[in-house]
Amino acid sequence: MLEQPAGPTILGFDVILIGTILAGLAAFAVVMAIYAAVTIKDPMAKRVKSLNERREQLKAGIVTSSAKKRASLVRKSDTTDKVKDSLGKMNVLQQSQIEEVQQKLAHAGFRNKELAVIIIGLRAILPIVFGLIGFVLFYWVDFFEFGDGSMKKLFGFAALVFLGYKGPELYLSNKASKRTLEIQRGLPDALDLLVICAEAGLTVDAAFNRVAKELGRAYPELGDEFALTAIELSFLSERKMAFDNLAYRVDLEAVKGVVTTMVQTERYGTPLASALRVLSAEFRNERMMRAEEKAARLPAIMTIPLIMFILPVLFIVILGPAACDISDALIK
Known about the structure:
Strand order of the largest sheet: 1-2
Number of helices: 12
Strand content: under 5%
Distance between the termini: 53 Å
Shape: flat
Number of strands: 2
């Protein structure tokens, strides 16, 4: 019997196999997109539920100064306790590490601080799991047929281990950066509404609540933060703590500046509307400067696409007919 010729390969990869995998992923993405478009859910329901839970927690006295009372009121998850005990036995869990992950979770919009232990546990377990998967795929089954002693196997195995270790952190960083960008876009409009509410005679917590309702649809992340700040202003014993919590949850220098202004107005009794008006004008100028900076970088960014894609086509269109005429004349 004649052996069938091997399929085309690129860099040692079977083109037909890679094409099949990509086609399957594309089909799965289309199915998920159709499902997401058909099953549209109201994003406000989840936000309102989380804010109501925070309000009930504050009513219950979770933020009291008594540590014993706080420990008796906060409900702990059995899974989190088991993971924390296991990591503590392996001496890989430190308080500074937990606080750092909790900060990243807050920046990403996750309110549950107990998830920090889960993230640390995943960062310790996923490299082992991905390493075993890589060993099976590259060395045991030889799924990609790299050959014996190939460096591609080592690179693939190392990439899977690195992905398992850095995966949770990369996910949190990506989600936090997107959330911070959305908050940054809506902050000047929110400050303008705060100025209007302050000049209308509303209190600070009522102004935050009003702004959260008005901007909840356009900027849901910013509306969520303002609504939570309004709830904490109503229930916390120290109003400064509510503003500090807002600066803790948002990784943005502009928000820290707003928090500093609000604290100073609360302490010294300075006019709130004038201070917020100055901040709003400053943030709008910064947004305009960022837009001008992107516009100034555009010619340099467009140079490579212009050389690689636009100019060759232009030369073909302009010089193509002339080259055809010259070749026909030479042939004759």
